[in-house]
Amino acid sequence: MMPVHHVAVAGTSLAVHAAGSGRPLVLLHGFPLDHRMWDRQAVLAEHCHLIAPDLRGFGGSAASVATSVAELADDVAALLAALHVTEPAVVCGLSMGGYVAQHLAVRHPDRVAALVLADTRLEADTPDARAARADLAGKVGRLGPGIVAAAMIPRLLADSDAARGTPHRAAVEEALRRMILEQTVPSIQAALEALGGRPDMTAAMREVRVPTLLVVGAEDAITPPECLERAEEIMPCARLLIVPGAGHMTPLEQPAVFNAAVLEFLRHPPGALGGGGAA
Ligand code: MLT
Question: Which ligand 1 atom minimizes the distance to the CA of 222?
Fold first, then answer.
């Protein structure tokens, strides 16, 4: 568990968990979770300055809700300024956190030295995906966050017999359930709307020339490996790792593999680490 600070940014207050020193590594959580999804990455603080915020409306952050993914990215830029982090950061985001990381690289290139995009995609929602989000938002309003846990947890984790049989499986499921149940209805509904309205980032990410590690679980049912394969094709400085035995939550499901990949990437990025994300 990393120590928590509450930082005033952009008219709200974000809870941020930070530990370690040296090169900043920002960890951006997925939907509808919070910084606790990175608990198994806390060991990375032995190598760098870990900064894991609860995004606007989630976890211990104040109740104001997100209106767009771009706003969440602006919050992260403001947070880094408020924390006096001047060195461009390695920004690692999973799924929704990956969308935020992409917007940060495009909107605030001086903040981003490198990207780790895990279990995410560059493309916008399809009309069907947007309709499914609207449907879920309605159900959350009537039934509470339990309906999101029920709908999402089976799709978040790898479904093979081998993955289901791993010793920490029950603990991972329980941690996810607890995190989802602790999020508020307005923040879940607002995030669903923001996610459904996010733009296609494909053209913008073609121009992002920072070293990028793409990671995806081989059994990811939400953003399958093809999503990251497409990203690898278009991003000039990206390399892809497909992790066996993981679904959509690769850092939780295969923490040793994920952490080793991040450390190796920090030591040997494809291209030199530097500031100024977009070319
Ligand atoms: C996430 O894990 O953050 C979500 O699955 C993202 C999404 O629904 O697009």
Answer: 5
